[in-house]
Amino acid sequence: MLTGMDSFQATIDADGRIEPRDAMPEGYRKTLIRQIAQHAHSEIIGMQPEGNWISRAPSLRRKAILMAKVQDEAGHGLYLYAAAETLGVDRADLLDLLHSGKQKYSSIFNYPTLTWADIGAIGWLVDGAAIVNQVPLCRCSYGPYARAMVRVCKEESFHQRQGFEILHTLCNGTEGQKAMAQDALDRWWWPSLMMFGPPDSASTHSEQSMAWGIKRHSNDELRQRFVDMTVPQAGVLGIRVPDDGLSYDEESGHYRFTEPDYTELYDVVKGNGPCNEQRLAHRVKAHEDGAWVREAAAAYAAKKAVRAA
Ligand code: FAQ
Question: What Gene Ontology molecular function terms does this protein carry (predicted)?
Answer without folding.
Answer: phenylacetyl-CoA 1,2-epoxidase activity
